[in-house]
């Protein structure tokens, strides 16, 4: 969010979609929901976690594509600004989610006992 605020102050206004505040909440909601589902599956078998991860990823991507196509179809004048902000937010939220999942699924290294 800090990066977006900095870009908002530095870049021309035409590059920003009026939907940017709504996009923040859209990505926040989708990310929190998928993260919650993944956390619940984390305590089960690893194969179950992988399946749930793949299913949630496919559902998220399908939802994102539907939102993009719908918005660009009905608002062609704002299409480029919408796509740029959507892509930047997608990258930020995806990186955040993956980093958090990797840190939660990491198994601590076994300590070697000295004899």
Gist of the model:
77% of the residues lie in helices and 0% in strands. With 115 residues, it is mainly alpha-helical.
Topology readout:
Layout: H1 2-10, H2 20-42, H3 46-74, H4 79-105
Helix pairs in contact: 2-3, 2-4, 3-4
Anisotropy-based shape: elongated
Tell me the number of helical segments per DSSP (H or I, 4 or more residues long).
4
What's the domain count? 1
List the secondary-structure elements in sequence, H or E: HHHH
From the alpha carbons, calculate the radius of gyration and give it in angstroms: 18 Å
For the biggest sheet, the summary is: none
Distance between the termini: 51 Å
Beta-strand proportion? under 5%
The total beta strand count reads 0
Query: Could you report the average pLDDT, rounded to the nearest whole number?
Result: 85
Helix and strand composition category:
mainly alpha
Q: Spans of 5+ residues with little confidence (pLDDT < 50)?
A: none
The helicity comes to over 70%
